[in-house]
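User: Second chain of the day. Same drill as before.
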Amino acid sequence: MADRPSGATIDWPWAREHALAVTGLLTLIAYLLVGLTFAGVLPWPSIGRETSELLARVVTVLNGISLTFLLAGVYYIHNDRVARHRTAMLASVATIALFLVVYLQKVGGGGTMTFDGPAMVGLVYFPMLAIHLLLSALAVPLVSYALVVGLVTPIDRLPETAHPRIGRWAAGTWTLSLVLGIVTHLLLTFYGWEYVVGPY
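Assistant: Same format as last time:
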């Protein structure tokens, strides 16, 4: 049974008229947080190796939870259950935001784990990691745009926007990025890593 609420979740006409500007701002903030953390500029609280490795596992769990909400959201919109789609997508975004904080704390305050397993496995691991990182970067503006437009646009007007088209690209890019992130962590876990203090 379809559930199609009316109105926008957030009544913010300026954001609705300037969705690209809001998307750009959100994207810039995310890129700056990551870039400044890896550059060692942001002062994250210092943590030890044991805590850093624990947070690495937490990051993977959060990725899995976010992926679950994301796939649920895709299922709901394909079945015209708009309210549940919106809830699932917001939960996925909230989870990935928490992931970002935990991940940056792990990197900025602790360290990173670099692959130290068999060379043959590395031939799979490193290309997967590169694709994961690329898709993660590409997903930020796509997801941000879909989020902003979805929140500030009345439901009945969403088909008139780029939300459905961008949303499909965002969901596909984000899904593959999350899956590869989980798989690369599992490869590290099973085949070994070298711990490096601080960002790369």
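The beta strands are 111-115, 193-197.

User: Great, on to the next one.
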